[in-house]
Task: structure prediction
Amino acid sequence: MPREVDVAIIGAGSAGLFALSQVRKQTDSYVLIDGGELGTTCARVGCMPSKVLIQVAEDFHRRKIFEREGIEGAVALKVDIPEAMEHVQDLRDTFVDRTLGVTDHMDEGHLLEANARFISEDTLEVNGEEIRAKKIIIATGSTPVIPAAWRSCAEHVLTTDEIFELEDLPTSMAVVGLGSIGLEIGQALSRLGVAVTGIDQIETVAKLADSVVSDLAIEAIGKEFPLWLGAVANLEMQDGAVKVSCGDQSVVVEKVLASLGRRPNLDKLGLENLSIDLDDRGIPVYDPHTMQVGNSSIFIAGDVNADRALLHEAGHEGRVAGYNAVHENIAAFKRKTFLGITFCDPNIATVGAQLDELNEAEIAIGEIQFGPVGRALIMAKNRGVLRVYANKADGRLLGAAMACVKAENLAHLLAWSIQQGLSVQDLLKMPFYHPVIEEALQAALYNALGQLDVKEELVELEKL
Result:
């Protein structure tokens, strides 16, 4: 006889754990199933160890401005790479331990450390046992993509699954794929002394749709290591190293970092046994506001749906899936304003709607170049640009893109403002301290204000 439960969650990553937090509020009849290494992708091989590596590299790189500040001794500074990597791993382990706190105390009846496969829409096979669930949540995450053509060089190709395990760094590396992961790790490695070449088959970086922001980011980062854009990378072995060729350009490196995106972990789930619709990528068709797959009793959340592969989005989707899995009536929830941040230097961030989603004839674009921004100049980080997009008719904020210092903070302010439906005028009534980076946002907003169709004078002072 199959074991029966209210909810089965497949995957104990971020989305699965957030789903579990909702399920536990309503029932103790559940199982959490995971046949891989416990601990979230973010904590083990993603957001957290990469930020530790970035911080080490940023601290070491900072020595290059010491002389202009009158600080002596910069030339004597060096970084002990094995010690630095041990530091990355120590902090990584701390972050992983925190996520494991959820599963460490779960009994064998609730946590099944094995792989699951669908037999039918309400039944799973787990390590030889059948589990029938009223609701099933797919939260199996994703895996780094490595092209099949690179198999001959497999021993020299790394992904984020391996790079944070290194005890030492190679002397040279090609980073193929310049999305967030490639830019962040590529720049960090370059700053730590690795000879890095960055490669991407498209002409922009970090998926930027705004050419003004993209051009500045490419110029700034390209001063630290070469960027080959619009080029497809071909790999071949050469004297124990890897020759990476892109058209007429080539470089021989010790290692290659494949940062070409991630594929959903769906291939072993037995989806062929279900009567659900799949899109052209083989991903179950679902409602992003309910996370329900069609009209079935199945929900899908996190990286596995290949939509917004970000931890805070996985958290949101997991909560929605978990809530709907334990409530009779399926509820639709608003999506949060899009927020994406790349922690390179300068930071790159996108908020809300982007230029390729907007009609430029209907929007005002407020822009500020960071050259004269006082606080940025003091920090020696005044190479940057911020562009905000607002509805010309009423000034309502729609989106933004930026490559600048403290973009991680500016992007949050703008995301919160957009989600609340605020306008350019609303923000300009807010206090701006001096000297702070936020003054750049104030300048961009004034630049947008002058382009609005709204002609009445902005009242910056509000009477009691």
